[in-house]
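Summarise this fold before class:
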Amino acid sequence: MKKIIILFILIWSNIQAQDNLVNSLKANASDSAKKFRFTAVIDLEDSPVKNQASSGTCWSYSGNSFLESEMLRLGKPLVDIAEIYTARCAYIEKAINYVRMHGATGWGDGAELHDVLSIYKKYGAVPYDAYKGLNYGTNKNKFAEMQAILEGMLQAIVKNPNGKLTKNWLPAFTAVLDTYLGKVPEKFNWNGKEYTPLSFAKEVVGINADDYIELGSYNYAPFYQQTMLMVPDNWSLQTLYNVPMKELTSIVDNALSTGYSVAWATDVSEKYFSWKNGVAVVPVKEYDEMSDEEKAKMFDGPQEERVITQELREEAFNNYTTTDDHGMHIVGIFNDQNGKPYYLVKNSWGESNDYKGYLFVSKAFFDFKTIAILVHKNAIPQSIKSKLLK
């Protein structure tokens, strides 16, 4: 019983981490909306802002927001894709991997952008109205209790108390998901027609998962080759294409300028990422080297930023000051009053900040803190694509 209580406390702490991060970012904010004046250069069509609430499912919200924008780009009607359906299917695949690895891998809500496409390809998609994932008495996601139970089950399973695993463990695991998130409908109606998740993905969403690739920029592997994304939430052990930092930025710029949005995995733990203010920049000095006056003025309009190099971003990744915190969706480019460009980024924390769920991210911040991006392969400049897709 003591072990179960301790496990529940640990899982609760993990699930609450992102909520605490959001709250701390809100607390560390000044009113900067009047001191930055942003003008649209590119503003791509996207779906309404969502709220992942008390769940670490940013990867599903950002990845499905990306798919929704791809549908709009292709001239399809807007569909609100059920993020928790994607997450639920990922938990099943993640549990299978966990058992195969005898528990020698992490467990939790987290995953990567590529998992959205893998789940879409294998399990399809459903509209939000067909699967809200709210089967436990709340009107928004609250996953702590469920995740504590799921991890406790998996830990018991890998201990193998019978000396041989039965075939019952996966149905039992799935039954917990059914209890907390609801059973997945085998068929559902949408706009007067009956679909399965797979037929809905094929006929309505209509996106080819093989048309998209994930990219990052790391010195631990050769450029222009595929390499393992070395972060804990890469439970599916997938690879990405490795390119130089500046080429990663040029891919995003080319994508946006040709009508393609970009899914983005990044670090948001820095004091110079301000959700409340809706601005993320990289000051010349690190936060702990600033005076109190400099800290107070971090978001008082455009300021000089640090020059980011390949070596600097790699050092931050290696020393854990850049971590795989969050997934968001890049949907545009705006200039500040001095003509400096920022990426317009859609978040999944509701509309509680100065820009109603969006924020403006400097290219220095993008260069410094990006973990990975997910784009359509046609969004990549030909000069870079020819080095990758040989």
The radius of gyration is 21 Å. The domain at 2-17+30-388 is CATH 3.90.70.10 (Cathepsin B; Chain A). The chain has a mean pLDDT of 92. The chain has twelve helices and 13 strands.
